[in-house]
Write a sequence for this structure.
């Protein structure tokens, strides 16, 4: 690998890792959503809430350890970080729910299509929250 490529990877390491783990988080969200709806017959809004909760738990761990390499230690500091993370995710989760409701119930767009579109917006918003608010250096 040339030095130029290595430097670019190092320069954009955080974004690359966020996109990788964001992709895995999205996969956790979507797979758990369809398991809930298709396998267990859970209503799409309840399935959205369940898949959101699973994705948030996965995202916190991966973002804290690998993406933003949080240096916060101690019970109080980590609890504060978790509260901020979950609060920001609640906001993006509410947006996810609202768009799902509008897309499926009001506009009649298939839930799979609507779910995919919401995830693009959610990943972008969550990166901004994580970078600017939660894991800022």
């Amino acid at each position: 690998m040339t030095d130029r490529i290595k430097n670019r990877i190092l320069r954009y390491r955080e974004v690359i890792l966020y996109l990788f783990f964001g992709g895995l988080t999205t996969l956790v969200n979507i797979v758990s959503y369809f398991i809930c709806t298709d396998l267990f017959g859970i209503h799409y809004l309840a399935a959205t809430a369940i898949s959101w909760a699973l994705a948030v738990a996965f995202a916190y761990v991966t973002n804290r350890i690998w993406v933003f390499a949080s240096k916060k230690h101690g019970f109080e500091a980590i609890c504060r970080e978790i509260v901020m993370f979950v609060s920001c995710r609640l906001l993006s989760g509410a947006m996810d729910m609202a768009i799902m409701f509008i897309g499926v119930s009001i506009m009649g767009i298939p839930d799979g299509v609507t779910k995919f579109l919401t995830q693009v917006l959610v990943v972008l918003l969550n990166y901004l929250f994580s970078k600017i608010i939660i894991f800022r250096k």
Remarks:
- The helical segments are 3-11, 13-39, 44-67, 75-106, 111-134.
- The chain has a mean pLDDT of 93.
- Residues 3-134 form one domain.
- The CA atoms of residues 69 and 82 lie 14 Å apart.
